[in-house]
Amino acid sequence: MRLIIVLSFVVSQCIVSYQQSMTRCPDGWVYFRQSCYQFADEMKFSLTEATHHCSSRHAHLAKVESKAEDLFLQDFAGRLYKHVPDHTFANSFWLGGTDSNIEGIWTWYSDDSDLIYTSWPQGHPGPTGDHQDCLILFAPNNYQWYDFECEILAHPLCEIELNVEAAAVVIG
Predict the structure, then answer these.
(1) From CA 121, how far away is CA 100, in angstroms rounded?
(2) Rounded CA gap, 116 and 95, in Å?
(3) What is the Cα–Cα distance from 148 to 155, expressed in whole angstroms?
(4) Residue 159 burial (CB < 10 Å; 0-12/13-18/19+)?
(5) Are 68 and 75 in contact (CB under 8 A)?
(6) Residue 99 clears pLDDT 60, i.e. is over it
(7) Rg (CA), the chain
(8) Which pLDDT band, with edges at 50, 70 and 90, does 145 fall under?
(9) Do β-strands 155-161 and 93-102 pair in parallel, antiparallel, or remain unpaired?
């Protein structure tokens, strides 16, 4: 009986250790609900360059799938620049949404899926044909979603989605 208890304890510790290793983010990244995020606030790129920046880190531009995730990203971005008296466009972050394939139909770059959750303020996205095909967390409006030209310079917001499904191991 004692051996079973010891083995159960060892197995449970291995599972906990494995789960913790699965949720560990790279240095400089922030964890939230099975994803790691990099707010690359020290560099600015066009959308294409931001996409390459994230890809080089085995990530993609952030794909926002819930209100909780959206509020987390807005709050964290705002805290990065809390010392700045006026939030300027220069403090904005790229997200991975675009309507460059079909005007007015917004999809995520990472997998070409439609945006299910959205958080557009009134008046956005702008009218079709305005060449504002890329999604940004817009600093001057408390990091709400805005559509902008893809060539402007903004900070990349990269995401790595963690696979924690494999963390539940059953032995027996």
Answers:
(1) 20
(2) 15
(3) 13
(4) buried
(5) no
(6) yes
(7) 19
(8) very high
(9) parallel
Count CB-CB contacts under 10 A for residue 7. 11
Give 160-166 contacts, CB < 8 A, sequence gap 24+.
Answer: 160/25, 160/26, 160/29, 160/35, 160/36, 160/57, 160/58, 160/59, 161/34, 161/35, 162/22, 162/23, 162/34, 162/35, 162/36, 163/22, 164/19, 164/22, 164/23, 164/34, 166/22
Q: Give the tens place of pLDDT for each residue, 33-45.
A: 999 999 999 999 9
* Structure-token pair, residue 170: 């059953």
In this model, does residue 102 exceed pLDDT 60? Answer: yes
Report the SS3 class of residue 23.
Answer: coil
Tokens standing for residue 171 = 């032995």
Distance CA 29, CA 48 (A): 21
Mean pLDDT on 77-100: 86
